[in-house]
Write a structure and sequence with these properties.
Blueprint: E1 2-6, E2 14-19, E3 34-45, E4 51-61, E5 67-69, H1 83-90, H2 101-128, H3 143-151, H4 157-167
Parallel strand pairs: 2-4
Antiparallel strand pairs: 1-2, 3-4, 4-5
Bound molecules: zinc ion (ZN).
Zinc ion binds at residues 27, 29-30, 32, 61, 63-64, 66.
């Protein structure tokens, strides 16, 4: 949904984030039209530890005045590490380079308490918007299985789940969870 446009400043590893398509996407709250009101910088840290700066657009809904950020799907709101790094940590699959043990512990704790919320949101989205959330008839048990029903459990599930919630503006209430 988003593409990263490397800028002339690419040597400094600065990237601009732009929605693909010619028009801005619609407001996730009310489907109103969005206009660009500015931009902000976001740090982006990959599993290699490589850091880049993303320039993310601030968008304002002309109808409900809500502010949105054009966050690429590989980032989690309010986190600098990309979603895959956090997912790998939560899954105990890979220890990312250069991340302090206390941060890794915080991510695991976060998922322990926040994972059920994500699963609950996806389940409630499935009721409200059955056309955009897939689900299977399996009987899920773990939090990951519950999330996997809607975004599959293949690698990348955290980014997919986050993006669903962000698009429907369900993430804003969770800032304290971090
Ligand atoms: Zn709106």
């Amino acid at each position: 949904m988003y593409q990263i446009t490397s800028s002339l400043k690419a040597l400094k590893r600065v990237f601009f984030v732009r929605s693909t398509g010619r028009t801005l996407s619609l407001c996730p709250c009310c489907q109103g039209n969005l206009r660009v009101i500015g931009s902000r910088k976001r740090m982006w840290i990959r599993s290699s530890g490589e850091k880049s700066i993303l320039i993310i657009r601030r968008l304002c809904c002309k109808a409900c005045r809500q502010i949105h950020h054009e966050l690429p799907s590989f980032l989690v709101p309010y986190r600098r590490h990309e979603a895959q790094v956090i997912e790998d940590t939560v899954m105990d699959e890979e220890t990312p380079a250069g991340v302090e043990e206390s941060t890794l512990r915080r991510w695991r704790q976060w998922f322990h308490s926040f994972g059920p919320y994500v699963a609950g949101c996806l389940e409630s989205i499935a009721h409200r918007f059955p056309e955009i959330v897939g689900s299977s008839s399996a009987h899920p048990q773990t939090v990951l299985q519950r999330i996997g029903r809607f975004v599959t459990s293949e690698r990348g599930w955290l980014a997919r789940a986050v993006h669903r919630l962000v698009n429907l503006h369900l993430w804003v209430h969770t800032r304290s969870a971090f």
